[in-house]
Amino acid sequence: MCGIAGYASRDAQRPVERALVERMLRTLVHRGPDGEGVHTADGIGLGCRRLAIVDLEHGEQPLSNEDGSVVVVCNGEIYDAPETRIALERDGHVLRSRSDVEVAAHLYEKHGLAFVEHLRGMFALALWDARRRRLVLARDRLGIKPLCWREDGRGIWFASEAKAILAAGGATARLEPRALRDILTLSFVRTPRTMFAGIHRLPAGCLLVHEGGRSRIERYWDVRFPERGEVQSRSSERDWTDALREKLRESVRIRMRSDVPVGTLLSGGLDSSAVASLMCGLADRPVRSYSVGFDVAEADEPRHRRMLYDFDGYDLLPRLAVARADDLAVLPWSVWCNEESGGVGSLSWRSRLASLVARDRVKVVLTGEGSDEALGGYPWYRGVKALGPLARLPLGVRRALLLGPVVPWLRPRLARLVMAPHEAGLARFRAIAGPWTWERARTLLSPEVSAALDRADAEDGEEEIELPAELPRGTLSIVFSTSI
């Protein structure tokens, strides 16, 4: 991963100080240890901390078009950049590197704001159009890469992490109380919030366009479920599984394009095992796999389940990191890097695993992250399906089925499934998947935080406002692997 940051001033005649951008980038060194690049001009400053993956020698960011009128910084990877580069050069564009990021500047020249529709990858990018004096922030379709922003009377700040905006003086570190509620009841903070009041997260599949002293957000992609009869019919279940396997194989193939070693994070589940097995079939050398175990036997997955490297026919070089209680010492640093405390129990062992990967100098790892959401892999998905008819019963009847406090005490997750609201929405998701109910979570808050939360709800309301779809919407695609 890389880290990007910058500032667009309302004073279009005054150059942005390089020192300001460098101050922002110093908070992002952990995201990009391989180098730093800055571009400043009248009214704009862009910067990037780079993790070098493609074109190690000539891919330093920021990157631009031929005359420097379009400048871009990006965190992420454009997977089909080689094919896109060929098409651009055929149209007369001159590219100076093999960097996957450079194609974004030329696609913008060709397509304007619709350039994001031609990017196949995971990305959070900032693009400066000097002729139009336009700043464009863009986030990938599923929001894999983060991008925060804040705007006030002085201009607009953006960064991969909120701490960079704080370092630039773009905001004061104040808790967003509704984000705290999200953490306690959902385990994540809902977009467009961050943990910091006044700093927003750009939604997935969206552009933020800042020009003429004003900003607007446009959605360029959204999930669209096909209408009945719109899905291509297949004659058998085997046809569907073959189609899925081929889609996954293609997804893994393009994600293995790299000038540095590529490995895989491997658990005992089908998701990461599927990715690892496909990598073995595509790689010309053994694939280094990384797994995590625990010194507590009950939690140690490699001890209880057969791992893919235990089977014949897979060319894997397994490495195992064992997480111990003393690994919790890195928890403050992990929270500082992540900026949100959701899932804190996993941060310590993820740090242990990352340190093992780093020692082997493997910069890219593929895994099954996100597949449970896309393919219904969590146990509660099956519970929702099985208990779905009960959700239509009156609340009193459902409460009686729980036999008073008996079922909630013996099977609390089952009780939550039974009592969840029938209507699809945030309340149902929170009841089914959230770690705590709001009634229980609120007992942890101080009176001051509770009062601040009540004021915030009274001023803005609980639910988010849906963004307008101002650009054509695409169709659903599954991203089955990711890199760090």
Q: Would you kindly provide a written description of the structure presented here, covering whatever features stand out?
A:
The chain has 484 residues and is α+β, with helices and mostly antiparallel strands. The protein has three domains: 3-219, Glutamine Phosphoribosylpyrophosphate, subunit 1, domain 1 (4-Layer Sandwich), CATH 3.60.20; 261-362, Rossmann fold (3-Layer(aba) Sandwich), CATH 3.40.50; 373-444, no CATH class. The chain is 34% helix and 19% strand. The chain has 18 helices and 16 strands. The chain has helices at 18-26, 81-90, 102-111, 162-167, 177-186, 237-255, 270-282, 301-304, 331-338, 344-359, 371-375, 379-387, 395-401, 406-410, 412-419, 426-433, 438-442, 447-460; strands spanning 3-9, 36-41, 44-49, 63-64, 70-78, 121-129, 134-139, 148-152, 155-159, 200-201, 206-211, 214-219, 262-265, 287-294, 316-323, 364-366. The strands form three sheets. The protein has a six-stranded antiparallel sheet with strand order 2-3-1-9-8-10. Strands 4-5-6-7-11-12 form a six-stranded antiparallel sheet. It is globular, with a radius of gyration of 24 Å. Mean pLDDT is 86; it is low at 462-484.
In short:
The chain has a six-stranded antiparallel β-sheet with strand order 2-3-1-9-8-10. A six-stranded antiparallel β-sheet has the order 4-5-6-7-11-12. Strands 15-14-13-16 form a four-stranded parallel β-sheet.
